[in-house]
Structure prediction request, 800 residues.
Amino acid sequence: MTPWDHLATHEAAVLQTVFWSAGASRLALADQLAYSKTKANSVVAGLLDQGLLEETGLQGSTGGRRPETLQLHRDLGVLIGADLGATSVDVAIMAPDLRVLAHHAEAADVLSGPGVVLSRVRALMRQLLAQCGKTPAQVMGIGLGVPGPVDFAHGMLVNPPLMPQWDGFSIRDYLREDYAAPVFVDNDVNLMALAELWRLKRSLPNFLVIKVGTGIGCGIVCHGEVYRGANGSAGDVGHICVDAHGPRCHCGNLGCVEAMAAGPAMARRATEAALAGESALLAECLQNNGVITPLDVAQASRQGDTAANHIIQDAGSLIGQMLASMVNFFNPSHVFIGGGITRIGPLFLASVRQSVYKRSLALSTRHLDIQFTPLAEKAGLVGAGVLALQETLKQRGAAA
Amino acid sequence: MTPWDHLATHEAAVLQTVFWSAGASRLALADQLAYSKTKANSVVAGLLDQGLLEETGLQGSTGGRRPETLQLHRDLGVLIGADLGATSVDVAIMAPDLRVLAHHAEAADVLSGPGVVLSRVRALMRQLLAQCGKTPAQVMGIGLGVPGPVDFAHGMLVNPPLMPQWDGFSIRDYLREDYAAPVFVDNDVNLMALAELWRLKRSLPNFLVIKVGTGIGCGIVCHGEVYRGANGSAGDVGHICVDAHGPRCHCGNLGCVEAMAAGPAMARRATEAALAGESALLAECLQNNGVITPLDVAQASRQGDTAANHIIQDAGSLIGQMLASMVNFFNPSHVFIGGGITRIGPLFLASVRQSVYKRSLALSTRHLDIQFTPLAEKAGLVGAGVLALQETLKQRGAAA
Prediction:
């Protein structure tokens, strides 16, 4: 039993605001929460007393007494974040300000099913906690990202095309056996969007995050919040048609952007080019490794390989074509592109941009900014940490 | 100078809540606004005293004193709503509960420019006000819908493809010359979405409204609010590509859904069918009237004309194909279809549905409801009324 368990609604709101603003003065808190100065001071005093907040240094001021910066107390506890990809798993222990205290990444195959994958995640969580000298009781909240549509309220995947064995398995119930802290599960690209929203301190209310890896997904931020849709499947853009005469996708339809432009499609096209004698570099790679990965295509492109360049440009162009429709519909201020694809480099990004600007309306692209996710490969884990703390505070505040 | 000009923030909030709930008890108000009962009672008493609220009848109750239903006072004033289409103009005077007190609709051509069209709108407003015995001083707020992307903050169209002469013309400044009341301008389909949101008393937080007429547009409701996008062009779906090898659109791209499936495209295809001798009915219509309209196609379809049926089914199918991508992306609970097209009937709706269910992911369509807009052709005007009252109250409340 910690003071953490007895948060009043106002206290949870103040902690949430401090977390999202990455440090705030009493005055800024009162302003953001529409509290009187007296009320803000009194809630803050209580939180300082309980050791949930601490004061660190001084902020700039225009005169008078300099306001101290309030932060979540460094001894408040830790967060566990996990980012499950189709072929990898990342687990981290984070401080309340999302500094990474311990981190481990390794290959994993979601197709081996929830039992195998999650028991490994569980072991990694224990191991990393021990590594930074923390106990399960010090964990405040746990956040987990998965590559498929999530029933957020129940913490489970629903009809996940890339990992059918996980359908309806309660990840939340499985993981919370070891911890008193609550477990929250969300789609991986929603977490990337949440991470960028946190990095930006909510300064951009309407943007998209596109993840290109084994699949293609989109995180949507609308009115300053991550938008999950009526059934939690918002942003499921991988099966949008970009060519009515394209190849058949595993979903049954023709010409889905995922079937034509995600990692596996690039690797397949590169293998074809190698076998057809169109690229000495790719052929050499195929011979040496028995397989060509999207990263091999990137490397070949960087060495000026024409076939590799074509493959990357085509993929960027198709993704841009799908994105053009989303930009017309949603009119975001920014599109951030992430996932393994970011390592494929500037040629890819240029093709995406060209395709979007060609097909979207002038008004939606006049101020549109398309770039790689600034948090890069950390976005998923940071988002898991944000989810863990944000939702835990919401729960504590609501229970008050 | 009316009491209306001196609203306190809490008073504006109570009036807003009463308006959106179409009548509410003091208890329900306290609950929705998170006020104490004492505070709710005192604000309501003040508003009753000022003649801004009135009590009407009794609500059902589970025991104790029966709570009265509060409504905006019927003598509060009137709202003016106007719905400008590409080829028509609708003006109405409405009571605070959006009952229509006077209404006039006539043909108009937006291409004749803002000077001609708006001076007619201005005359109609004066005329209709007089008709129901009201003066300009009794007007609380004015709402206007236009068929193009709107800079909402400045009340003007920006880069409107259907009405280039209106670019940057301040409709707001022009119309407010006659009235002390504020003028608000929004895209026509955003107003249809706002109208449905009001009809539903905000019970559906995430849905789309598609308008098919001379153009094709989409209104987006997200997190219980109309979403306008970063530059006010959200929902501009008419130029989404549905056939990379389709005809060239006036926007310069190939195969835009608007160029292939909106009213003019249907009329063009019907004319071709008539000239090619594929339909005796359509040929007769062309001969008699010199032109075929989308409504003629509908009529021919109802009489079992095969060519007309094909045209309607193809249009529904193409719109459904575009909509399938939006459904994958946005995962709405409902899609409401409106505009002139609703009069084309069930064959059109069936084709849209079939196309969406075929191309969208199972999870996004599992509970998806696609139907014609329940408010039908009144949606635009009702939305203009909602906009007028909602934004006026926001402004009064903020100025307090």
